[in-house]
Design a protein that fits this description.
about 90 residues, two-stranded antiparallel sheet, 2 strands
Length: about 90
Amino acid sequence: MDFSATIHGTRVVAELKARITRGLVVIGSDVFSRSDLAAVECYCFTAASNLSHILATIRVANGNRKIENTRDLFHNVPPEALMVPRL
């Protein structure tokens, strides 16, 4: 995407470019950026950010540990655990 520094300003352009590659969804050690989500046609970035914050509080069903990565989430967290408000 082409951002014009003369229109938006240098600081705004730098922030917009950084937002494209910065991690938006963090699932343990896995980090997904806006570009990663857009590649699978997911454009609801607010929901993706909410998902990241909520997953940070959920514990794995067979132990009292945090989610390690996306694979751990799918194999060890029951879908009922994700039925929370704002998700």
